[in-house]
Amino acid sequence: MFEDETQYPDNMFHTETVDTAHQGSSDTHQVAAWPDERNSTHHFPSGAFYQGQLVGGRMCGHGTLKLPNGKVYTGDFVNNNFHGEGTLRCPKGEVFTGQWVQGKKQGRGVCSWPDGFVLEGAYVENEVHGQARVSSPDGSWFKGRFERGKRHGEGQARTKDGDIINGIWANGEQVSSQL
């Protein structure tokens, strides 16, 4: 399953393809299975586009996948999933660079938005979970513990006015503070 929750069938690679692996070739032809460990360019009926390595007819190794919804992933694949290091760019400007496991953000990563917000930290199954830091363009920031995408536990915040607050958060809400 990909970030946009689109599931691609196992046979999605038995389609018409434009083969650019050999210099000068631009023939369109039907393939039964694609050769392993070859860099190729492939267009899918769904509108998806993949350029990269294949193993056993599946995306494995380094490649780029452009999805019909405008999202573009460049990085490592294993068994048709984002897996390893990679960057996902979304059409509205959100960018995530970091570690992936079976198509989900898992491990260290940095997510940035076009409005200047940046979140850097640990991810578990697509959510920030563990130690992380979020900063905003007005100079304010929070660093501390997150649980399932929400501030939870001890943390420190800086307001846009420069005040530093040490406190405890629960389910995203500050429950105690100390200036």
Number of helices: 0
Secondary-structure-derived class: mainly beta
Shape: elongated
Percentage of residues assigned to helices: under 10%
- How many beta-strand segments? 15
Description:
It contains no helices and 15 strands. It is mostly beta strands. The protein starts with 15 loop residues before the first strand and ends with a strand. It is elongated, with a radius of gyration of 21 Å. It has 2 domains: 101 residues, no CATH class; 65 residues, Histone H3 K4-specific methyltransferase SET7/9 N-terminal domain. The strands form 2 sheets. The protein has a 13-stranded antiparallel beta sheet, with no helix packed on it.
Topology:
Blueprint (H helix, E strand, L loop, with lengths): L15 E3 L9 E3 L9 E4 L5 E7 L2 E9 L5 E7 L2 E9 L5 E7 L2 E9 L5 E7 L2 E9 L5 E7 L2 E9 L5 E7 L2 E6 L1
Antiparallel strand pairs: 1-2, 3-4, 4-5, 5-6, 6-7, 7-8, 8-9, 9-10, 10-11, 11-12, 12-13, 13-14, 14-15
Summarize the structure.
This protein has strands at residues 16-18, 28-30, 40-43, 49-55, 58-66, 72-78, 81-89, 95-101, 104-112, 118-124, 127-135, 141-147, 150-158, 164-170, 173-178. The protein has 179 residues and is mostly beta strands.
Provide tags for this entry.
disordered N terminus; Histone H3 K4-specific methyltransferase SET7/9 N-terminal domain; 179 residues
